[in-house]
Amino acid sequence: MTETTPSHMRPMTEKERALALALAGCRFLPGSWDKRFAHDMAAKSSVTEKQAFSLVRLAWRYRRQLPPALR
């Protein structure tokens, strides 16, 4: 672990990274938590377990806007 990464953070998997980038391109309500979270996750390279779960939950919510390979 690097000194800037807290011990509870772990690197994103390839699938999580692809989901985060795909979600950043979805259409959201302006100013929504979903939009802020998706854009924040697209800019990160490490996540907590809670963030990873939230990313999957958000992908399910916006699954119709995601490419078929990521559904």
Describe this structure in words.
It is a single chain. With 71 residues, this protein is mainly alpha-helical. Helix content is 48%, strand content 6%. It contains three helices and two strands, in the order βααβα. It has a two-stranded antiparallel ribbon. Helix 1 crosses helix 2 and helix 1 crosses helix 3. The longest helix is centred in the last third of the chain and has 13 residues. It starts with 9 loop residues before the first strand and ends in a 10-residue tail after the last helix. The model has no long low-confidence stretch (mean pLDDT 92).
Round the mean pLDDT to the nearest integer and report it. 92
Main sheet specs: 2 strands, antiparallel
SS-derived structural category: mainly alpha
What is the count of β-strands?
Answer: 2
The share of residues in helices is: 40-55%
What fraction of residues sit in β-strands? 5-15%
Radius of gyration: 12 Å
Question: Strands across the major sheet, in which order?
Answer: 1-2
Compressed to H and E, one letter per element, the order equals: EHHEH
Q: In one word, what is the shape?
A: globular
Which ranges are low-confidence, i.e. pLDDT below 50, for 5 or more consecutive residues? Answer: none
Number of helices: 3
Q: What is the end-to-end distance?
A: 31 Å
Write the layout of secondary structure elements.
Layout: E1 10-11, H1 14-24, H2 33-42, E2 46-47, H3 49-61
Antiparallel strand pairs: 1-2
Helix pairs in contact: 1-2, 1-3
